[in-house]
Amino acid sequence: MESKEKPVLGDKSVYPSDEVLYSLTGENLRIWQKVIDYTTGNYENITSEWRYYNDGKQWLFKIQFKKKTIFWSGVHAESFRITFYFGNKAEAILEGSDLPVIIKEQFRTAKTFGNMRPVTFSISPDTDLESIFKLIDLKNSLK
User: Fold this and answer.
1) What are the domain boundaries of the chain?
2) Is it the case that residue 16 has pLDDT exceeding 70?
3) Alpha-carbon Rg for the chain in angstroms
4) Angle at 103 (CA atoms; ends 23, 97), nearest 5 degrees
5) Confidence band of 4 (pLDDT split at 50, 70, 90)
């Protein structure tokens, strides 16, 4: 779930290539890649990009369907962080889903950004990939 680790991709001149990512995250890169493969394999017109953001002084990965951002990802010491942002209108859908209670609680208690609340995962060998896949599906189903 949520992690307060410090991001490690803060050098604008170092693009997060697969080699760089593997050197920072090791085998967790393979788990993160499963999330990317699930998204691109199950949805058409998915785009993704690594981009350096000056406001946060770090590289972030964004995956989108048309103009809708499905999730953001950042690299932390030895892991990836994946964050989904849901608006208030998604609350009833999240609460009525079969997602684990801990994810619903994270959404309920999350700090709001405007009318958006995050659900964050730290990628590791014991990450609940099924819940991430359900959130990808849920995010894609929202209008």
Assistant:
1) 18-141
2) yes
3) 15
4) 125
5) low
Q: Both tokens of residue 99?
A: 């997602």
What is the pLDDT of the chain when averaged over all its residues? 92
Question: CATH: 3.30.300, 3.30.1460, 3.30.310, 3.40.630. Which one for 18-141?
Answer: 3.30.1460
Indicate the helix (H) or strand (E) that contains 116: strand 116-122
Residues near 100 by Cβ (< 8 Å), separated by ≥ 6? 128, 131
pLDDT of residue 38: 97
Of 97, 42, 85, nearest in space to 60 by CA:
85
DSSP codes joined into one string, 52-105: EETTTTEEEEEEEETTEEEEEEEEETTEEEEEEEEEGGGHHHHHHS---HHHHH
With pLDDT > 90 as the criterion, what percentage of the chain qualifies?
Answer: 85
What would the pLDDT profile of 39-54 be if each residue is shown by its tens digit?
A: 999 999 999 999 999 9
Rounded mean pLDDT, 10-19:
95
The interaxial angle of helices 28-42 and 18-25, nearest 10 deg, is 130
